[in-house]
Amino acid sequence: MTSHSKLEDSGQKEKALTYENPILYLDIPDPDVIRVGDTYYMSSTTMHMNPGVPIMKSTDLLHWKIVNYVYDTLAANDEQELNNGKNEYGKGSWASCLRYHQGMYYLVVGSLATDKTYIFQTKDLEKDKWKRSILNKYYHDMSLLFDDDGRVYLVYGNGNIRAIELTADATAIKEGGLNKIIIPDASLVASPKEEVGLQAEGAHIQKIDGYYYVFTITWPKNGHRTQLVHRAIAFDGEYEGRIAVDDPTGVAQGGIVDTPTGEWYGMLFCDNGAAGRMPCLLPVKWEDGWPIFGENGITPKNMSIPVHQETSENRIVSSDEFVYESDSLDLVWQWNHNLDPTKWSVTDRPGYLRLTTNKLCPDLEAAKNTLTQRTFGPKCSANISLETYGMKNGDIAGFAAFQKDYGYVGVQVINDSKMITMVDASPGSPVVVESIPLEQERVYFRIDCDFKDSRDKAYFYYSLNGLDWNRIGAELQMKYKLDHFVGYRYALFYFSTEEIGGYADFDYFRMEPLNE
């Protein structure tokens, strides 16, 4: 997948390398970025997807690759396991905070599904597992601060921004420690109380040159998402605030980071329809101790790149031939909800992803072991090859454009006969739009996604030879919905409606950008 960096022809001999926002045309919401030496790391929200909370790495703030995840699973309740009709769509783990302090990396994240907050620690965030501590309360959109005096705080909340003190090792709430509102009614910087829509939230706290800065977002009624900044000379002192980013496109929510040479940038995000919430990088200047984003709070059209890296590349999504030596997958993949490790393999039949059913499911949203990857824009295409030898009556296997209003093309077994079926769930429940007989065991599916100019359309195809493609069913009008709270995903799936124990083999997953 290519970046949006490009050469700007100014008519002069030398060309200045510039970039455009969003820097990545895919779903990476709630970014939090730190710098350690000359390397940047970023965490993001992936809700109900596991493994959870991706850690991404960059050397130029523009090109990113996934290098690890913070956890495999948060819990094993019915919600995470998709049991008894329960799920954690739109819940899971929310906005995380990534920090580095005295040789240790910290990641804090809360979960609306478990009503808890989790503090993870590791000395090597690229290779090691993370040690976990649990706070038995959900602290909304929290941000972690290690102060110069050795005290540790979580800043969190909405409307009123609060702070609570942690123990020095950041593993628990400090008994008798600070617990107070530090910024009352933070939203009022942007609008009168009666005009506040979304109250201030999404806190990011940083201490810079003796000031404590708290970045939040608010959303005035009849307005757009707006970035705020408050500052104080003492952590629990009096904070003064102002609007930091007032971009009509709603670019907001995030913190700031510096380069080794002293420049500053804000990593925020913007909404981009069904493709999701996408990271935006804004240059930051300082005036009288206040950070000034972009051009007086507006995202400029073209910006000079922070660091020139000839060899940088993105690796957030990727094709996969499923050739592995053990049952592990490329980091670009995430499972929908908790994985059943006994019901999938890439070694049972080398070169194939095999999914096996373990329960009866009414529809795709309830299916276990659905494997997902982000779609990306402006336009993308992905295709798969599926072998159906092991499928039983009532089984459905295939390829989906997955969100609440999903669509898929797949194979369904009915009375020992196999049918190629296109299903559209956007009416509120899955509807079979078109179905045709399948007389062979191998079939190919393709989904094209068009996010350009907010078209948000998905188109479904099948092939009997992998070369000649046939449209099937209807186009899907993709919609970003808070039910799932993620951008559309490509999904490989297999579930049973009548009897368990069958299997489906996926030969490959191949994706590419489409010409605009």
UniProtKB/TrEMBL annotation:
Domain of life the protein comes from: Bacteria
The keyword Hydrolase is assigned to this record: yes
Keywords carried by this UniProt record: Glycosidase, Hydrolase
All residue ranges annotated as the Beta-xylosidase C-terminal Concanavalin A-like domain in the record: 324-512
Matching SUPFAM superfamilies: Arabinanase/levansucrase/invertase, Concanavalin A-like lectins/glucanases
Keyword Ribonucleoprotein applies: no
Gene Ontology molecular-function annotations: hydrolase activity
Record-stated family: Belongs to the glycosyl hydrolase 43 family.
Identification of the protein by name: Glycoside hydrolase 43 family protein
